[in-house]
Amino acid sequence: MGPIWGVLEEGASYGDVSVGHSEGEEFLFVHSGRLEFVLGNERYTLEEGDSIYYDARTPHSYKNIWDGETLLIAVSTPPTF
Questions:
Q1: For 26-75, where are the alpha helices, taking DSSP H only?
Q2: How far apart are CA 18 and CA 12, in angstroms?
Q3: Does residue 15 carry a pLDDT above 90?
Q4: HSE-up (13 A, CA, CB side) for residue 34
Q5: C-alpha closest to that of 50 among 34, 68, 70, 30
Q6: Domain segments of the chain as ranges
Q7: Distance (Å) of CA 58 to CA 17, 30, 33, 48, 61
Q8: pLDDT surpassing 90 at residue 41
Q9: Sequence-separated (6 or more) residues with CB below 8 Å from residue 41
Q10: Is 20 helix (H, G, I), strand (E, B) or coil?
């Protein structure tokens, strides 16, 4: 597993919704703030305490939609970060 502690500034984003990773799984937990998470053709709003688990091959991205920093923990297996 490859865990990371993420700090996204206001308006910052990560990923490209048209691209997935190689085989694996990922988990993301929002410690504080709010994210718009795009997974394939679906959009989710994740707030403090929310999490999402998904197949890493599915195209995904996320963006901080909070007025301030959003803090998160992301874990991938196998490690890809």
A1: none
A2: 18
A3: no
A4: 6
A5: 30
A6: 2-74
A7: 9, 20, 24, 23, 10
A8: yes
A9: none
A10: coil
pLDDT at 81 (0 to 100):
59
Is the model's pLDDT at 32 over the cut of 90? yes
Selected from 3.90.1150.10, 3.40.50.1820, 2.60.120.10, 3.30.360.10, the CATH number assigned to the domain covering 2-74 reads 2.60.120.10
pLDDT in tens, 55-81: 999 999 999 999 999 999 999 998 765
How much is the pLDDT for 17?
A: 66
Helix (H) or strand (E) holding 42: strand 42-47
Cβ proximity of 55 and 12 under 8 Å: no
Residue 11 has pLDDT above 70, yes or no: yes
